Amino acid sequence: MIINFEEIYLKGKNQKIFIKQLIRNLKRKLIDYQDYLSFSKSHGGSYFIEIIQEIPENVLQEIIYKVRNTPGITGFYVADTSGISMAEIIEAAVSHAEKQAPNYDSFAVISKRINKSVPFNSMEIGRQVGHAILKKLDKKVDLTRSDFKIYIKVRGKYTIIYSEIISGIGGLPVGTSGKAIAMLSGGIDSPVSTFMAMNRGLHITAAHFHSVPKTSPQSIEKVKMLVQKLTDYQGQIKLYLIPVLEIQEAIAQKTDSRLRLILLRRIMLKIGERLAAEEKAKALITGDSLGQVASQTLENMAATEDATDMLVLRPLVALDKKFIIEKAKNIGTYDISILPHDDACALFTPKSPETKAQLKYVREQCAKLDLEKLIEQALERMELQLISDRTPIENI
Hints:
Elements: E1 2-4, H1 6-9, H2 15-29, E2 37-43, E3 46-51, H3 57-68, E4 75-77, E5 80-82, H4 86-99, E6 106-113, H5 122-137, E7 140-141, E8 148-154, E9 159-162, E10 166-167, E11 179-183, H6 189-198, E12 203-210, H7 218-234, E13 236-243, H8 245-254, H9 260-279, E14 283-285, H10 298-305, E15 311-313, H11 321-331, H12 334-337, H13 359-366, H14 371-380, E16 383-388
Parallel strand pairs: 6-7, 6-8, 11-12, 11-14, 12-13, 14-15
Antiparallel strand pairs: 1-3, 1-4, 2-3, 4-10, 5-9, 8-9, 13-16
Helix pairs in contact: 4-5, 6-7, 6-11, 8-9, 9-10
């Protein structure tokens, strides 16, 4: 298996740091398949994982799924290898083509001679391999619209032969950009923003704010399912479950009703700041998309962010809802997100929320609350769970 990582290849002298983290992430994700695999080394923008024994097809598909969903990998292929003599190349290429024979009627050979010391050129490889496949398998050659393409690369002391390039999700390896706390609701947006942060190399710890028993306990189970899906990309994720019902009741009793969501979100950021100190995280992640709802106007986002000195990242800020929904479908969170659930932010929602909050007035309203006491109470009742890509759904 040959793995490509285009963006990492551009990191110059720091490239080794990124590759090392990528391989560390891969080894952890593939730990259950270590009897089949041997991690090799990188060669000019690629990393080699050797398949050391025959892999059942269902197991191979599991491995491919995990590799495909590893941030930092732009693409990969499962390849056969041979020596660099023409006879060895032909034998391996015909064998590779024969495995896929039921799936195509026409074929093309695309060859590249990277090792210039061999006594034949790329065109000669293509011609001789093509002739051998034609003779053995009785398939039609079609260089423009073939059903099957076989790629041959003659490198230093070996030849790579493959027929399918599998796209990865690109980005940077999780952990190369530091740590962040992701504010995760049960909706569509925040899981997508969490994924996008992971895909830029951030190691994510999730924080979910709930209002149980005013909201259903099933809302928490839904978030756990979302986190489990997101472990496809990070491997394992810490999930903090933080009760905020008492905070919401205090806001409703003591402050201007138009500012309920802004004040709640300010306190969420303050709690996120506490978690960040515990987890040694350097940023907070939210699912805000500019103008999507009342709390996400420029004025209201500024009034919310004023509550913390931490960097607040909003990966979705300039994306429209259609794009976000498509991304949620692509990463597998959409079907979970649209399950019915109660949302903490929806509780005590005012009929006429403020859309252009004045910072001075927001601070005045915030001062009516005993913030330290409310935050400490929430943290005392907070729960922590560790969810892994190896955790069965029924155990979440």
